[in-house]
Amino acid sequence: YRIDSFDAIEASGGMPGIFGPSSSNVAFNLSQSAQEVCVAVAGKLIDGGDCVRLHHLDWLRSIMVSLAVYLHCWQVLCPEGRGNALRLDLSMLVSGDSSLERLKEAGFAQHNNQMRWVQLGRQFVIPLLFFINGSSLALSRSTVWPSFKKISIITAVGMLCNLLIYICGPMDGTCYVVTSDQVRTSEQCKGLLIDFVVVADSEWLFSILFQFWFNAFLLTFLLEDATLYSALRSISDDVKMQGSASMRLKRWLVDRRQQELIPGVVLRWIGIGLLWLGFAVCVSAHQRAPLMCVAVWMVCFEVMFNTSLAYSIATPASEPGKVRLWQYAAAALVVAQMCTPTFTWDGFDGHIVLYFHVFKQFSALGYVMALTRGTSGAVMSRGWPVVIPLIIFCAPSTNFFVAGVPTYPWLPRLLDRYQYTAGSFLCTFIVDRVGRVFAAQGITSPLPRGVSTATLLSFVFHPAFIVVWVVLVPKGRHVHPLLLTLIMVLLFVILVRNVLECGTRGHAAAGCREPAIALLPESVDEQGIGPVQAV
What's the pLDDT at 184? Predict the structure, then answer.
């Protein structure tokens, strides 16, 4: 059934037993893109199944965003983590231990548990955020442009806030939040309103960009992959195709309806190649030729990666194991694509821009996993204990080593890079499988009301919150970063819940009812039922 208007939904007569006997309409909640919509026709589910909401994506997004905020709080309040020096994880050794004393005499620095958390967490926090973004985009059944517009607006508002903070401060990257009183009271650190900077050891541009590097890359990836997503969606929606994956792709290629998409995909590969070569130029002269070779290498693997994604979608539901195997193959190609080349950088240049395209692949893989949620089957899950040694094999060291940037390291040894990035993909596959199994069983609870919006506000405005906290709270400069993160998120949750309650009271006063929300069954695609148009 295809729903083209809200009137058609209202005419369905509601869904007794799911929305309640008095419900007479179905609402589409477009603010939560990590979900699908359950539509009633003549009072019945279109396939007679149960509605499934992927609550785990809501949970994951909020938790990963909170961990990213914690990383930034740690960077602001603990400047000793800067620099590329190795800091050993000696937290388990007590003072006076002979081993500890010998290591200190040898000049090795020691770190605390905070650095251990950052070292372990950065293997999967940012990759999972990009993965969730791709999954959400696929489940929203919309093009990339609404998301592009929304992200652009959020980025502009947040960067304006960061600009005001930078102007009000000393505009000197050496004026840390936790520097001594003598340094902060010097002429060097006198600002219009505050005597410190939030983003230490950085030029003005990154001080304004700060946390929105994520948004900048996300917008870039959406532009690069807009045509790819349209093509993958077209393959997924063409339910009339039969036969093997190769036969279905061949028919798709010769289908007249795809005559506009196919040249676009080819032009996309050419455009990405030129763009990546352009990034390779943005380095010092002696590094340009090697980095341009790396860009060509990446483009070659991009074609193979996109082909694997297409085969995963085109593989029929009768072969669910092959659907998943093609996704494993795509992940393996990304590991080879991004971990084999050599990237070296001293600042924000072409090296880091090209290397961070590994996150684009997490987003694309998340997009395909969401599209194939009804056709992909269990492979590693059939012998899931095998995953335990894989987790051990891919686990990072707890010794803190920046290895480029704290966000995601580029490790000097090739095998370490392969293990580290493979561990990121392993976490992604585990989250996808466990999340879907729990969703099918109805085990995962909904995310508490207001938490999703509160974590988004924390991400956008945490530099401003840190400034207010340090200025107003005595000894606020020395609070534990984890405690500061928890206080920040909790206050935003209270704020959002109060706003929602006021809005609910306003609706009640106007005689309105809050509409119920449900989700599309995962088996809809398998039934060959056409897509539901969001209204």
Answer: 60
Q: How many CB atoms lie within 10 A of CB 472?
A: 8
- The crossing angle, in degrees rounded to 10, of helices 451-472 and 55-77 is 10
Overall average pLDDT of the 344-364 stretch: 88
Which pLDDT score is estimated for 116?
84
Examine the pLDDT at 317 and tell me if it is beyond 50. Answer: yes
HEC profile for 127-159?
A: HHHHHHHHHHHHHHCCCHHHHHHHHHHHHHHHH
Name which residue leads in pLDDT, 84 or 231: 231
Q: How many percent of the chain have pLDDT more than 70?
A: 77
Token output for 333: 């190609």
**CA neighbor of 66 nearest in space, from 409, 422, 512, 486:** 486
CA 433 vs. chain centroid, Å, equals: 17
d(CA 26, CA 325): 37
The pLDDT, as a whole number, for residue 346 is: 66
Q: What are the contacts of 380-383 at 24+ separation with CB within 8 A? A: 380/429, 380/433, 381/433
CB atoms within 10 A of CB 406: 18
Q: Is the pLDDT of residue 107 over 90?
A: no
Q: Which residues contact 56 (CB under 8 A, 6 or more apart)?
A: 431, 434, 435, 438, 439, 444
Q: Are 516 and 19 contacting, i.e. CB atoms less than 8 angstroms apart? A: yes
Neighbouring C-alpha atoms within 13 Å toward the C-beta of 391: 12
What are the phi and psi torsion angles at 335 (to 5°)?
-60, -45
What does the alpha-carbon distance between residue 30 and residue 13 come to, in Å, rounded to a whole number?
22
Between CA 42 and CA 9 the distance in angstroms is 9
Distances (CA, A) of 417 to 154, 298, 355, 480: 33, 16, 12, 31
Enclosing H/E stretch for 2: none
Mean predicted confidence (pLDDT) in 410-422: 93
The predicted pLDDT at position 111 comes to 65
State how far the alpha carbon of 499 is from the alpha carbons of 389, 450, 464, 496, 506, in Å. Answer: 47, 9, 20, 5, 11
CA distance 380 to 325: 10
- Neighbouring CB atoms inside 10 A of 171's CB total 15
Side-chain-facing half-sphere of 219: CA atoms under 13 Å: 14
pLDDT at position 374: 84
Q: Is 88 helix (H, G, I), strand (E, B) or coil?
A: strand
Nearest Cα neighbor of 418 from 361, 341, 350 is 341
Q: Which two tokens stand for residue 443?
A: 């085990």
Helices (H) and strands (E) in the chain, counts: 19, 4
As a whole number of angstroms, the distance between CA 125 and CA 113 comes to 17
Instruction: Give residue-wise pLDDT tens across range 474-504.
Output: 788 888 899 999 999 999 999 998 887 776 6
Spatial contact of 42 and 431, defined as CB atoms under 8 Å apart: no
